Amino acid sequence: MPHIDFGGSSLKGIDCSSFVQKIYRIFDITLPRNARQQSKVGISIAREKLTEGDLIFFHTNRSLGHVGIYIGNNEFVHASSRNKVVRIDSLDTPIIKKDFSAPYG
User: Fold this and answer.
1) Residue 78 known to be catalytic
2) pTM for the model
């Protein structure tokens, strides 16, 4: 597997918001570059109302510092800076549950 550096917008250095931006671009949806700006595009919804494709945001070391895409079954895909890979995680994982913010549809 190739080494990936985070904080950028190329395939060798992609961060969470750039990952989301590139995935949505495939579907002709234009999103801003960072998680905070992306959170202002949609509307906040209750966690119980999440559907596939909704953006979910997390408070990390800064407010709304991380974003992922909900894929159903209480899981989401994201570019993880912690593990330096694009991965699928459960919203019930303790560290993720702690940082979870309101989802956006």
Assistant:
1) yes
2) 0.79
